[in-house]
User: Fold this.
Amino acid sequence: QHMILREGEQVGQYKIISVLGRGGMATVYKAHHAKLDRNVAIKVMHQNFADDNDFTARFKREAQIVARLDHPHIVPVYDYDEYNGMPYLVMKIIQGRSLKQIMLKKPPTVDEIIHIMTAVGDATTYAHNQGILHRDIKPSNIVIDNDNIPYLADFGLARIAAAGESTMSADVLLGTPNYM
Assistant:
């Protein structure tokens, strides 16, 4: 179960505009930051996960991990906070479509594939050099904005790759089965 934020609801500095999408762990909303006069994406963890300390810690770690990443093809994180006990992440809003949505309409051309995969490859190489694995790269996590710039989104399963920093045991598998 998850609390649905309503249009016009104030979450910290942000006013909710609409729902952008729902995932297994969180719902993403479009919201407006009045002082900066810009729209953002707010990812709010579902209540049943917010009550689970492990998930809350992972969500917070995601915020800290992704906020460290500064790359033109990784969706930037602006903020992290809690609202009524639910952690939320504030990110740049990307106006565009996922690679999955694009592929459902028509397959990308070879040039488009090279353009997208070069950007995604650069983003993953950069993240790997920071010691961060994405672990769930798939068409729905690649977003192409209206200026044709690809972004790698949703580092939800990311973790520090460096030895000793992981709290997950080696036999825990995380990811989307089709892409594992």
Notes: The helical segments are 47-50, 53-68, 99-105, 110-129. The radius of gyration is 16 Å. The first strand starts at residue 10 and ends at 11. Residues 13 and 36 are 10 Å apart (CA to CA).
